[in-house]
Each structure stands twice: as C-alpha cells, then as structure tokens.
C-alpha cells in the first residue's frame, strides 16, 4: 500500500515501496559491481533495454533509477518512454487498480485507498487500507476537497473554490496548481476541476467550472507549463451542471439540466470543444423518455457512458463516436439479483475481457460492489475488508507520467 507523503513546498518526490528481490534484479540487469559499489549499466543495446523496461511495473522502475544515469533519465524524465509505458500498462491486468477517493466534504483528512482489480475478480480476500495525503494547507483555510478528475495516472483534486491539487500515486508526487483568481466584486462559491489531455498540443489542461455569488457559471482553463488561468466564454445556455466534467476526445462533457427550451426541461449532454473553445449540446440515449436524476453519467472504455436504472435491470449505454447521437449503443443490461429489489446500481466500474462487469450498488443508503458474469448469468460479492462505502471508485492504471517539472 501507499504511504503518507510529507509536507513540503507543494511538491513531494518521496518514494516508499517494497524492494524487488535479489533474483529479479539479477535477471533484469545482469550487472557487475564496481569497486566503488556503484552498478554498471547492462551490456545490451539501449533500444532493447528501453523495450524491456517498458514491461516492468512502476515500483521496480523506481528502484532501477539508481542503476545508471541513462536509466534514471529514461524513467524519470523521458516523456515518450513514460507514455509508452503507460499505454502498455493499460493492457496488463495486474497494472489496474481500483482507487477509492473521498466524496466532497469538509473533512480535514484526505484519504486515498487502492486495491488490485485482479484480486477482486479472482475472489481473493482483499483488505483496503486508507492512506492520508498530507498536502499543504491553502492560506487562511483548513482542509476540504471537492470533485475528483483522473487522466493518464494523475488525479486532480479540488481543494476548495480556488485551489486544486495534482497527484500521481504511483510515483508519489503531488503539486498545487496556481490559485484561481476570483472575479472583481464577486467570488466563487464552488468549483469543479477536470483534468484533460489535449492531443493537438500534446499537453494537459485543467478546466475549472465555478459558480459565483450571482449564480453565474464561469469557465477558466489552465495549461501545464504556465502559472496562470485564462477565462473563456461562459456557457451560452441556461442550464444546471451536475458533477465533474468528463474528458473524451479533446472535449469536456457534463450532464446538464437544460432549462433554456421553451417547451420542457431536459437532461442533455453539454460538450466544450478544447480546440475552438465552443459549446454544443447533444441528446443522451434516453431523451425520448422522461428520464430523471437517477441517470448516471460517466466514462467507460474511453467513451461517454449513461447508466439508467429500470424496474428489473440497468442498461449501460456508450457513445461510440463522440458527438454523434446515432452512435449511442446499449453495451449491456445488468439484471438485479432475483431475490433482492432493494438496491440500485450507481455506476459501472469495469468490464473484463471475459464478460464480467464490476458494478457499484446502493442498498439501504450504503454503497457496495457486485460482479455480474454474463456468460453464466451469475452474481458474486467481492470479498473486501475495511471498505469505506462513502468513497468513490476509479479505475487507475500505474503511471510514470509526471507533469510537475513543467512548472
């Protein structure tokens, strides 16, 4: 499990992991020890070494940084290697984690917990241990936090209405973003932050959506490598946003309650194009029905996803082509357990390659997890100890990606 980080100047580079075994080190490095006890680089072509290291888990790579300067630079600073390693990690089942993050509240302690996805599906008894992240306090404020956004192994946590924190659990680094300036003669009541990867510039952005005291929605963006925020055009529709935005295909998307129509109010999807900073609305798959607030908006398999609960089952829809309303496809229907009608599915967490789906459920005001096997039409309850049912689940992929040196 991860260990707590210490307070510093806003960034922490500490690492605490179990060391790889002596056998593992010998097989991978095949190195000799010089008289000064330093380790020589392996006598292999560096391109081949790079390919091999791409398949090594993060916790071992962090140990291998001390092998030689070229390895240290490759692992710690080479962004192309880090991206390739991340892409490969998404295909390896044992690199996937279920990370549990706190729900927005005024708690003075930020707890982060994780468990391997493989242990959940293998029916092993797993124990979750919460780990505190001791980030620096913002001036004149105590600890609190808002919504959570995730991209490429990095979390973005909203600390308050003007502050956000980036954190990569794999490499134990965090960074406070520059503060979001309040508008003159006004101030923000609430802000949600969305972390976005922008393919056209090969860079990352933060999109901040703030509600001010006049109940107006303000949109600001921050680009990595800068120390300021840029205000962009406000949403040109009368609507109410729900939750943190979802980043898909160089856009940020929200499920909104649209009250700008003349006939009726509808739940629609609002999308912000990060290339042109323009907005558009499109329909969700249940727009012909009287959908209600029980609808869940999320990301699944890299697509926008809608989870809807019916009387006997839940349907999971994905938008295969972003922005194309005709591409909404029902990915699966998950029935309720035959002997229990007292719960609802609150999110679709993960779909395995062998057609098993991990769902989060709400029963009697408490959250839990359930696995449904499509092939056998069976259910099972994962054996997880010390789970906090108020924490929100996110699928996390181990990552070396570090954006913090750009500041």
Question: What proportion of the residues form beta strands (DSSP E)?
Answer: 35-45%
Number of helices: 6
Shape estimate: globular
Strand order of the biggest β-sheet: 4-2-1-26
Supply the helix-strand structural class. mainly beta
Terminal Cα span = 29 Å
User: Mind describing the biggest β-sheet?
Assistant: 4 strands, antiparallel
Mean pLDDT: 78
Characterization of the model:
The protein has 407 residues and is mainly beta. Helix content is 12%, strand content 40%. It has six helices and 26 strands. It has helices spanning 22-29, 46-53, 58-64, 69-77, 79-89, 117-121; strands at 96-101, 111-116, 126-127, 131-132, 148-151, 154-160, 163-168, 173-176, 188-198, 203-212, 217-223, 230-231, 239-248, 251-258, 266-273, 278-282, 296-300, 303-309, 313-319, 328-335, 343-351, 356-363, 366-373, 378-380, 384-385, 392-397. Strand 22 and strand 23 form a beta hairpin. The protein is globular, with a radius of gyration of 23 Å. The two termini are 29 Å apart.
Note the topology.
Blueprint: H1 22-29, H2 46-53, H3 58-64, H4 69-77, H5 79-89, E1 96-101, E2 111-116, H6 117-121, E3 126-127, E4 131-132, E5 148-151, E6 154-160, E7 163-168, E8 173-176, E9 188-198, E10 203-212, E11 217-223, E12 230-231, E13 239-248, E14 251-258, E15 266-273, E16 278-282, E17 296-300, E18 303-309, E19 313-319, E20 328-335, E21 343-351, E22 356-363, E23 366-373, E24 378-380, E25 384-385, E26 392-397
Parallel strand pairs: 3-25
Antiparallel strand pairs: 1-2, 1-26, 2-4, 5-6, 6-7, 7-8, 9-10, 10-11, 11-12, 13-14, 14-15, 15-16, 17-18, 18-19, 19-20, 21-22, 22-23, 23-24
